[in-house]
Amino acid sequence: EKGGYEHFMLKEIFEQPKSIHDTLRGRLLVEEGIIKMAGIWDNLERLNQAKKITIIACGTSWHAGLIGEYLIEEFARIPVEVEYASEFRYRNPIITEKDIVIAISQSGETADTMAAIKLAKERGAFVYGICNVVDSSIARVTDAGSYTHAGPEIGVASTKAFTAQLTILSLIALKLGKHNGQLSNQEFMRLITELDTIPQKVQEALESTHEITKEIAKNFVDAQNFLYLGRGYNFPAALEGALKLKEISYIHAEGYPAAEMKHGPIALIDENMPIVIIAPKQGHYDKIVSNVQEIKARKGKVIAVVNKGDTQVASVADYVIEIPETSECFSPIIASVPLQLLSYYVAVYRGNNVDQPRNLAKSVTVE
Ligand code: M6R
Prior knowledge:
Layout: H1 8-14, H2 16-24, E1 28-29, E2 34-35, H3 38-41, H4 44-48, E3 53-57, H5 59-76, E4 80-84, H6 85-88, E5 100-105, H7 111-122, E6 126-131, H8 137-141, E7 144-147, H9 160-179, H10 185-195, H11 198-218, E8 225-230, H12 234-249, E9 252-257, E10 274-279, H13 285-297, E11 301-307, E12 319-323, H14 331-349
Parallel strand pairs: 3-4, 3-5, 5-6, 6-7, 8-9, 8-10, 10-11, 11-12
Antiparallel strand pairs: 1-2
Helix pairs in contact: 2-9, 2-11, 5-9, 5-12, 9-10, 11-14, 12-14
The protein binds 5-amino-5-deoxy-1-O-phosphono-D-mannitol (M6R).
5-amino-5-deoxy-1-O-phosphono-D-mannitol is lined by residues 58-61, 105-107, 110, 113, 156-158, 247, 360, 363-364.
C-alpha cells in the first residue's frame, strides 16, 4: 500500500498535487468566478459579522492556523487569534456567543482540541471544524465545517494534511473577503486563478527539489541543531519545517521570523549552524537578502529556498533549492515541499523509523 515508495511519508509528500486538487475540486470554480462551500455559505452572515475569530489546534494544525490568521486578516479583514488548544482550554478565555472558533485537526480526535471545542461551545461560540478524517469526533461535534480531502495520512509526521489545511483556509479567507466586500472582484479573480495552479506548481516543486534535497540532506546527517527562518506567510512555514525535522530526525530545530534573529538566535550562529531560509520573490525579499548576508558574515551554513532563476540569495547561499513562484499568500504550500523532503532524507540517512518516530502517536487522544 506504499505504492512503491519506501515510506508512507514519502508517498504522502508525493500525493500532494492530488490531495490539494481534491481539496479544491467542486469548491473552486474559476470559470464561474466563485468558491462553493456549503459550510461557509450557510453561515455567511454570522461569520462575516464576527468581531473576532479564534483558531484552535495543536502541532502542525496549529501552524496551519497561523497561516490562516494571515489569510483571513489580509483578505477578509476580520481579526484572528490563534491558540494552542491546550492553552485555550485551561485559561478561561474570553469567548461569548458572538465569537467564531475555527478548530483544525487532521485526525479529528485530538483530546486537547476536542476539550477546547467543548469549552467554546459551552460559552455559546459558533465552532467551525476543518478535519481530514470524515465523521471523526471533532467533525461531529462542530456546528459546521469543511473537510480537507487529503485522504488517509498514515505517516505520523503530517505532510499532505497540512497543505490541504492551507488550501481550505485559503478558500475560506477568499470567500469571506469576496462576500464582505473587503476583496475586490478583480483581486478575487486574480487570487483564485492563481490558487487553481497550485496543484501543478506543487508537482513542479516535487520534481525540481527531490534530488537536490536528497543531496543536501547528506551533509547534515550529524547536525545537532537547525534554524528555520521565514518572514510573513513563511514564518509559520519555518515553524512547520523545524517541527518536521525534530519529529523524525530527532535533531533540535527552531523556527523563527527572520527579523527576530538579531534579538537572540544570532548568537548561536557559527560555521556549524545550518540555517534554512525561505526566500521567495514575493514576500519581503529584500529584507530576507539582508538576513542572509548577516548569517553569512557569521559563517552560518545557508540552505535557501528561492524562486526559480533567483540570483541574489542564490549567490551567497551555500545550498540553493528552487521552487516555482506564486503569490505570497500561497507560497507556504509550495515551500513546504522541499522542507518536508529535507527532513525526510535527513531522517532516512540517520536510519530512523520515519513513519513511526519514537515517542509519537498519530493522534494524541490523551491530554
Ligand atoms: O490530528 P491533529 O491535526 O489534531 O493533530 C495535531 C498534532 O498532534 C499533529 O499535527 C502533530 O504535531 C503531528 N505529528 C505533526 O507532524
